Amino acid sequence: MEKILVTGGAGFIGSNITNQLIDRGYGVLVYDNLSRGFKKLINPNAKLLISSLNEREKLRKALCDIDVVIHTAGFAIVPESVDKPDLYYENNVTGSKILLEEMINGKVNKIVFSSSACVYGNPDKLPLTEESPIKATNPYGQTKIEIERLIQKYNREEGLEGVILRYFNPYGPNEIHDPETHVVPNFVRAALLKKPIPLYWKGEQIRDFIYVEDLASAHIDTLNIRGLNIFNVGTGHGVKVIDLIQKIFEIVGYEVPIKDLGERNGDVPSLYTSAEKIKREVGWEAKTNLDEGLSKTINWFKNYLKT
């Protein structure tokens, strides 16, 4: 049985990846300092080590007998990164560098890294492909570029194998950030609590919303491919944010007011991907349509808000 270390496994995406790894028979060690993750999200069949990436001795021990690292640990709030770029560099880039160094020292030769569509900035041409220009427009996106470069460096110099997954807009169960800046959980919470929905740009932005269970499966489906690979992970379809709100209204069966927040720095008007490369080379594709994914998400938040 292969053993997988999931950094950030107590977070939104890491916990969903852990669940699927357990379901597929892998051994999982969750490595998380719980500064932004939640112990209650961790699968009871996974082991947990509460620690940070800069605690080298604990990290070194954690990597013993590990076959692959899935690296989802990192701060991920774009507006916060604009206010605190040094914090984001220290946590995301420096922490990842330490992880990669200890992987090399411990002869753990494979990493699957949680990158972001933010590396593309404000694109000139859509849909995005893996060959689209890299030009992040915020410090969060820049940290992802720096970590990608580190993985590429260790691939060239040490033969480290890596999969870089550039996520588009994940949504689904277990998303409980604080503060929450992502549209789906904010909209769903507001609708269920019958409060006004906070909306920027009048909802004219276009995004590629991918259900988190589909996204999680991409990490596992790429575990056995060799070398260094970069894949965009999305549905291949753009959706207007205002249309997303209407779908939420249809599912809950009523409407709530919309609070117009105007414009917001750092947002790009339109962002969606071609998903052809990962389908062609891995056989992965998103299986959950937006209506089904939103229904599952709304049901999860109904139960969560009760507790």
The strand order across the widest sheet is: 3-2-1-4-5-6-11
Can you give the helix content as a percent range? 40-55%
Please tally the β strands and state the result: 14
Summarize model confidence as the mean pLDDT. Answer: 95
List the helices and strands and how they pair.
Blueprint: E1 3-7, H1 12-23, E2 27-32, E3 47-50, H2 56-62, E4 68-71, H3 78-83, H4 85-105, E5 110-116, H5 139-158, E6 161-167, E7 169-171, H6 183-193, E8 197-199, E9 206-207, E10 209-211, H7 212-221, E11 228-233, E12 239-240, H8 241-252, E13 258-260, E14 270-271, H9 276-282, H10 290-306
Parallel strand pairs: 1-2, 1-4, 2-3, 4-5, 5-6, 6-11, 7-10, 8-13, 9-14
Antiparallel strand pairs: 9-12
Helix pairs in contact: 1-7, 4-5, 6-8, 6-10, 8-10
Report on this model:
The protein is an alpha/beta fold. Helix content is 40%, strand content 19%. It contains ten helices and 14 strands. The strands form four sheets. The protein has a seven-stranded parallel sheet with strand order 3-2-1-4-5-6-11, with helices on both faces. Strands 12-9-14 form a three-stranded mixed sheet. Strands 7-10 form a two-stranded parallel ribbon. Helix 8 packs across helix 10. The radius of gyration is 19 Å and the shape is globular. The model has no long low-confidence stretch (mean pLDDT 95).
